[in-house]
Amino acid sequence: MYLSTSKICTIYGDSVDVLEPLFNSYGGRKEFYGQVVTVKCFEQIGLILDILRQDGSGKVLVIDAGGSLRKAVISEDIISLATHNAWEGIVCYGAVCDVKELAEFDIGIKAVGAYPVLAEESDQGEQDCPVNFAGTSIYSGDYIYADETGVVLSQDPLDLNS
After folding, report:
1. What pTM was estimated for this model as a whole?
2. Predicted confidence (pLDDT) per residue in 17-55, tens digit
3. What contacts 93, CB < 8 A, 6 or more positions away?
4. Number of separate domains in the chain
5. Residue at 79 is within a domain
6. What is the CATH number of the domain that holds 66?
């Protein structure tokens, strides 16, 4: 199914939020959407790994890494785990590494930037908590719609056949 965030904004107007254009696309899938699962962790990947070990069918992981570009919280191994468990995509307010390899995976990845050093594997952080970045608040259970134009957030699932 073709996904257009521009069309979503035209149809749904003020009932959706648009994240500020902070993100670059790193995954092989340029369009993705799903129900949000949030995690807040600063320069730590343990909790991200725990979440991505779960079934991700129809879900998008939203990571608040504090916008840090000093340590990557997404790597080739992490994305391999995510695709193995059928996650639709990841929106990361932080950094990725292994950029060339990430493009080979059939998953959507939006992140602020890239950095070659991976974060520590500690379980510090919070899951299913509200996160605030890119000009909006995001909650587990919301819905994310992303393409090459932008990232749109809705509290309810949207009819993409409109």
Report:
1. 0.96
2. 999 999 999 999 999 999 999 999 999 999 999 999 999
3. 22, 63, 64, 65, 66, 67, 111, 112, 131, 133, 134
4. 1
5. yes
6. 3.50.30.40
